[in-house]
Design brief:
Blueprint lengths: L3 E8 L5 E4 L7 H14 L8 E4 L4 E8 L2 E8 L4 H18 L2 H6 L7 H5 L11 H12 L5 H13 L3 E2 L2 H8 L1 E2 L2 E2 L9 E3 L4 H28 L7 H22 L5 H18 L6 H20 L2 E3 L7
Parallel strand pairs: 3-6
Antiparallel strand pairs: 1-2, 1-5, 3-4, 4-5, 7-8, 9-10
Helix pairs in contact: 2-5, 2-6, 8-9, 8-11, 9-10, 9-11, 10-11
Amino acid sequence: MSLILFAFVVRVRDGLPLSASTDFEHNRELQERKQQLRTISKALARFPDRGTVKGQQLNIYFVSSEGVSYMTVCHCSLPVAKAFCFLEDLRWEFTACFNSTVVALAARPYPFLEFGEGRGMVSSRFDGTIQKLKQQYNQSGGPALEVTLAEVQEDLRIHPPQVINLDEVELSNGTANGHMEQGPGSGQNQRLEPVTAPGILSLVLNIMCASLNVIRGVHLIEYTFQDDYDGVWNVVAFLLAFICCVFQCHLYLFHSSLKKLKSFTLLSVIVLCNLFLFGMRNAWQLIFHISVASLSTVLILNRKLQDRTNDCGV
């Protein structure tokens, strides 16, 4: 079983992918880790030089140096020190092949793809370096020199890598129109999964609920300010429920920071507003409105980001 599954080299300042290995395993968690890895690459400038992201079976490790970050997805059974040994070897190989000026001038994604998988039009001494390095570690279980491993272990003991919270990374990147914010020239394009049939149904029902709420609220305003000032809270409840329905539609259609917190907050407000309106609405109407809000919340939380990166076959 391979312990090092994927390696990725990116430019720190904007997350531009420079090179990557080819992975031949297509399990679901690996694809999720690759997507998370690209998300992290957008925020590398805010992180220390070494970091790790813990997963169920697969972990992400990265090392940044001289404006370039070296990242990998490894099986959790691989010792942390060996993972960072691999990254140090990868860093040494990359810097031996490409100087900082070439890296800084790179304008398109994967300009050094042959360094990762050896598919360049013209053969060179660094063709497939990442693949060879992966193979060496997967077959031998670690670096050739034990002294190197011991040095890394000691360094990690003194300066342990920062454990990265993925939720904070994803939320801090921000989005617009369902897309993650992109660095100039990065070629990255992450967006939400396509809208499903249940999603369309929830949008229609949410719009219906919002319409009913605003119609009842506006209708009550006339009578409230003429005869019954005590009914102003009913107006507030209807209009607040209307606003929450609109925001639920927005949360479903567009990626947002703190999605889980916002979703449950909106659901709670809608439930409370409808319970407050009991008497103006019968039990079946309350059940309908609360059920629509609950369905929307479930679909919002289940609609994930998809990766539409131009992977160039990696």
